[in-house]
Amino acid sequence: MPAPADAELRIVDDGQVELAGHLDLASIAGLAARGSELFAGQDRVTVDLVNVTRADSGALALLLDWQRTARRSGCRLGFRNVPPTLCAIAEVCGVDVLLALEPA
After folding, report:
1. Where in the chain are the domains?
2. How far does Cα 104 stand from its chain's mean position?
3. For domain 7-103, which architecture applies?
4. Strand order in the sheet with 16-23
5. In the predicted model, is pLDDT for residue 1 greater than 50?
6. What kind and span of H or E run contains 38?
7. pTM of the prediction?
8. Highest mean pLDDT among 23-27, 46-50, 94-98, 99-103
9. How many CB atoms lie within 10 A of CB 22?
10. Mean pLDDT of 79-103
C-alpha cells in the first residue's frame, strides 16, 4: 500500500534519506514497508526530517520500526532535524535512548 500523498520519502544519495509532510498513523504504513530496501547493503543511513510538517505517535512507531529493520540488516541508523514534538513524544515514551535523534 503506497503512503498517502501527505507523507513522502526521497532517497537523496547513498545513505541519505529525506522524509517530508505529515507523518501520522494514516501515512506511515507504506513508508514502514520500505525499510528493508532502504537499509539493505548500507553501513549507515541518515534520515533527515527537516521537511516534516507534522508528526505524532505514528511517526515514532515508524522510526522505531526502521531502527529494528536497520539493525537486522547490520546498518546503523540516525535521524536528524527531528521535530521537537517528536523528540518530546519519544522522551515521554522512554524510547529516546533507543533512537539516535538529532533535534531540529
Report:
1. 7-103
2. 14
3. 2-Layer Sandwich (3.30)
4. 7-13, 16-23, 44-55, 76-82, 101-103
5. no
6. helix 35-39
7. 0.89
8. 46-50
9. 19
10. 92
- The residue type of 32 is A
Ranges assigned E (strand) in 1-104: 7-13, 16-23, 44-55, 76-82, 101-103
Burial call 39-56: b when 16+ CB within 10 Å, e when fewer: beebeebbbbbeebeebb
Grid cell of 91 as nine digits: 522522551
User: CB–CB of 64/31 below 8 Å?
Assistant: no
- pLDDT tens readout for residues 8-65: 999 998 899 999 999 998 889 889 988 888 998 999 999 999 999 999 999 999 999 9
CA atoms within 13 A on the CB side of 50: 7
19 within 8 A of 27, measured Cβ to Cβ: no
Q: Checking DSSP bridges between strand 16-23 and strand 7-13, what pairing results, if any?
A: antiparallel
